[in-house]
């Protein structure tokens, strides 16, 4: 009688595994060939995998990280924000050659495992040339109307909750949000009322959560305070693992290899076709190939992979004859700001309010300023994690007290694409990020607009003894919104990708993540990456299925 051995293939379904016991399914052999090889399983790659899954195309997803464990620490602020339990060790260098650890998350689902799931469309104007106070945001090669149908599908796939018609900068939409807006808790409703009384147009922030407030007893999302910046322990956040990779793997034609870091793409002699994908799985080398190869490693890592894949035909890096790969890195001018009120803020799910009244400017400053939205509710532990040096001397209870009275704002302005803000790689393959902030006037003006409101927001109906603001600019280690290193365009001299996100110089190589964005606007980038993945995915099906 044979007995199970440790080298046996993955066990069959058990009554205790949640759907997809076969998700760990794969035995990919050396030299295996697929219709499409997708490298990276985040917003771009995970969405693309799901889009291709029903077509029957043979798809392999390669992900350098593992499944993010569902464990109590998912919702432990100390583990997440102070011990950085889910930050993946991969130090980068800054422009001075100084090492820093970016907030990277290498897991199935990529950065979306940690994201706040705020799902904004770029504004219509973001696709056109926009004059900023400190420079120009160039036009995209396509218009908002080209992306609109894909945004609508992206909102459906990621279960976005929202309310059309409230945001004065809202672009035209072909349908309603698929789900009703997440209801404001009382303090947020009061904030909305106060903002309206001040003449503004606050709106329900669009949010990707699997929430049914009409039937809370059966809702997967519990509206807890561990959404923004935490992995979701109960898989109720609309991330690319839960809504991209897992559904994709329910199709037998889709395979996933975790702990599989792609090291290099090899072309044929002409340099026009990627003929092999070289990777390491648990330190062991493996080579696979695909009719089409899609790089979806996130903006910095996609640039890294192309640069590391230099060869005789592509001496500056794959698809980099134009020297554009890695350039125009953007990540937003973002500030987390905390305003303290006299009365405690009892909100649990705080991320329901956003303001775009200054997105494109106002009568006193006729230039774009950006977006304001609420973040997840902070507590003392989180605040210490965000600013460990500044809060080193402060006891935990004092930070808890501050946080109890805090309203937490996220202020985003556009950083402009600058060719000198770029990703390069060192001889050992390490990322070097050279970044100099720009367009800071817009950010300062937006902060001043919020500051100018605070009296009306907090003092009107009650006595306030004091107000504090703890503001800190996001340093370059805050890479969450990274974008723009392989911009798409119609001119091969100024772009890496064509309008289908295929490399101009390689016939079967695509880049599908936030890299393709020529500008970043001032709203969170993932819905745009998701919409684009659906757009490019449809092109790929046409290409491969005829
Ligand atoms: C804390 C936090 C909060 C955020 N909040 C929001 C928000 O509320 N709204 C929003 O729109 N955006 C938010 N973002 C940003 C959002 O998560 C990203 O814009 C989005 O995930 C980018 O998608 P991507 O496909 O470009 O990259 P990713 O999602 O990062 O996916 C890239 C994947 O490629 C893998 N990979 C990298 N290199 C290799 C390699 N060589 N071989 C194999 N695999 C590789 C990585 O492990 C990763 O899984 C947030 C990000 C963070 C970190």
What is the tally of helical segments? 10
The stretches of 5 or more residues where confidence is low (pLDDT under 50) are 1-11, 459-472
- CATH architecture designation: 3-Layer(bba) Sandwich
SS-based class:
alpha+beta
The main pleated sheet reads as: 7 strands, mixed
User: Which homologous superfamily in CATH is the superfamily?
Assistant: FAD/NAD(P)-binding domain
Keywords: FAD, Flavoprotein, Oxidoreductase
Family: Belongs to the GMC oxidoreductase family.
Protein name: GMC family oxidoreductase
Pfam family, one: GMC_oxred_C
Describe this structure as you would to a colleague.
This is GMC family oxidoreductase. Residues 108-328 form the Glucose-methanol-choline oxidoreductase N-terminal domain. The protein has 546 residues and is an alpha+beta fold. The protein has helices spanning 43-52, 77-82, 144-157, 186-197, 241-249, 299-308, 380-386, 396-404, 440-458, 526-545; strands at residues 33-39, 59-62, 92-94, 99-100, 130-132, 135-137, 160-161, 203-204, 207-208, 254-257, 260-267, 274-281, 284-295, 333-340, 353-355, 371-374, 406-413, 422-425, 431-434, 469-473, 509-511. The strands form five sheets. Strands 1, 2, 10, 11, 12, 13 and 21 form a seven-stranded mixed sheet that branches. Strands 8-15-16-17-14-20 form a six-stranded antiparallel sheet. Strands 4-3-19-18 form a four-stranded mixed sheet, covered by helices on one side. Strand 11 and strand 12 form a beta hairpin. The termini are far apart. The protein binds flavin-adenine dinucleotide (FAD). Flavin-adenine dinucleotide binds at residues 39-45, 62-65, 103, 105-107, 110-112, 114-118, 229, 261-262, 296-299, 301, 305, 480-481, 513-514, 524-527, 529.
């Amino acid at each position: 009688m044979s007995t199970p051995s440790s080298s046996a293939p993955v066990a069959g379904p058990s009554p205790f595994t949640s759907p997809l016991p076969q998700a760990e399914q794969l035995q990919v052999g050396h030299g295996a060939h697929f219709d499409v090889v997708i490298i990276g399983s985040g917003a771009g790659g995970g969405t693309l995998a799901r889009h291709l899954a029903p077509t029957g195309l043979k798809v392999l997803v390669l992900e350098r990280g593992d499944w993010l464990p569902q464990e109590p620490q998912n919702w432990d602020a100390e583990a997440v924000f102070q011990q950085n339990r889910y930050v993946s060790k991969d130090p980068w260098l800054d422009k001075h050659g100084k090492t820093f650890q970016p907030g990277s998350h290498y897991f199935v689902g990529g950065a979306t495992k940690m994201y706040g799931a705020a799902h904004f469309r770029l504004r219509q104007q973001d696709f056109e040339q926009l004059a900023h106070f400190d420079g120009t945001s160039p036009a995209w090669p396509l218009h908002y109307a080209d992306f609109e149908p894909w945004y609508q599908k992206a909102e459906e796939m990621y279960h976005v909750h929202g309310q059309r018609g409230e945001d004065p900068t809202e672009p035209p939409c072909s349908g309603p949000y698929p789900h009703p807006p997440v209801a404001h808790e009382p303090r947020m409703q009061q904030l909305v009322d106060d903002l309206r009384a001040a003449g503004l147009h606050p709106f329900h922030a669009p949010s990707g959560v699997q929430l049914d407030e009409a039937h809370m007893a059966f809702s997967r999302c519990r509206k807890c305070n561990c959404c923004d910046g935490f992995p979701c322990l109960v898989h109720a956040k609309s991330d690319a693992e839960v809504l991209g990779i897992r559904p994709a793997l329910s199709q037998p034609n889709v395979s996933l290899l975790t702990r599989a870091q792609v090291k290099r793409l090899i072309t044929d002699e002409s340099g026009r076709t990627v003929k092999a994908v070289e990777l390491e799985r648990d330190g062991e080398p493996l080579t696979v190939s695909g009719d089409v190869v899609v790089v979806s490693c996130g903006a910095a890592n996609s640039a890294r992979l192309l640069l590391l894949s230099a060869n005789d035909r592509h001496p500056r890096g794959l698809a980099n004859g134009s020297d554009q790969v890695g350039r125009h890195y953007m990540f937003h001018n973002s500030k987390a700001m905390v305003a303290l009120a006299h009365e405690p803020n009892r909100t649990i799910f705080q991320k329901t309010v956003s303001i775009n009244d200054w997105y494109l400017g106002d009568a006193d400053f006729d230039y774009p300023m950006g977006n304001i939205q609420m973040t997840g509710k902070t507590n003392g532990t989180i605040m210490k994690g965000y600013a460990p040096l500044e809060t080193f001397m402060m006891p935990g209870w004092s930070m808890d007290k501050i946080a109890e009275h805090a309203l937490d704002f996220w202020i985003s302005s556009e950083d402009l694409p600058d060719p000198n803000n770029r990703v390069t790689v060192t001889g050992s393959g390490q990322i070097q990020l050279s970044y100099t902030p720009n367009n800071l006037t817009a950010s300062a003006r937006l902060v001043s607009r919020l500051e100018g409101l605070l009296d009306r927001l907090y003092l009107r109906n009650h006595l306030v003894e004091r107000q504090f603001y703890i503001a800190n600019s996001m340093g370059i280690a805050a890479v969450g919104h990274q974008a723009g290193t392989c911009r798409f365009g119609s001119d091969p001299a100024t772009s890496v990708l064509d309008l289908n996100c295929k490399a101009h110089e390689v016939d079967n190589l695509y880049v599908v993540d936030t890299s393709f964005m020529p500008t970043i606007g001032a709203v969170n980038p993932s819905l745009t990456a998701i919409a684009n993945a659906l757009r490019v995915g449809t092109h790929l099906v046409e290409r491969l299925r005829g």
